[in-house]
Design brief:
With 124 residues, the chain is mostly helical. Helices cover 49% and strands 0% of the residues. It has one domain. The chain is built from five helices and no strands. Helix 1 packs across helix 4 and helix 4 runs antiparallel to helix 5. The chain is globular.
């Protein structure tokens, strides 16, 4: 099976996070740079259904959820970046579906820990 170079939206967010963010005066809506940054998890609650953490908008546990999820996301992103730096032109191993499933599992691990409703795969 052929592995796609852009193996996931998460990888794209990682790459974009390396570019300096736009000033608030320049950006009207959250950009991918914003969503990949430290407040990205909080901002993802403003994304339209079924993306991001739309279902947690206004939930008092959203900051605690983000405190749980973002370190996991960062470790995963750093691992992917190290792989891509060591293997120029190659995407990290796995398919887009595997990458999405891994991220969903990370999200649901934090949601379960905090007693929040589980996220569902937006592609199903």
């Amino acid at each position: 099976m052929h592995k796609s170079f852009s193996s996931s939206l998460s990888i794209v967010a990682i790459l974009i996070s390396l570019v300096p963010p736009l000033s608030h005066a320049q950006a009207q809506a959250p950009t991918m740079q914003d969503l990949a940054g430290p407040n990205g998890c909080l901002m993802s609650a403003n994304m339209p259904k079924p993306f991001g953490e739309w279902d947690l908008k206004g939930n008092a546990k959203l900051p605690a959820y983000c405190d749980c999820f973002m370190p996991k996301f960062k470790v995963r992103a750093e691992k992917a970046m190290k792989y891509m730096q060591a293997n120029p032109g190659k995407a990290p191993p796995g398919t887009l579906e595997q990458s999405n499933a891994e991220e969903l599992a990370m999200r649901n691990s934090c949601r379960k820990q905090l007693g929040l409703p589980l996220a569902v795969d937006p592609n199903k």
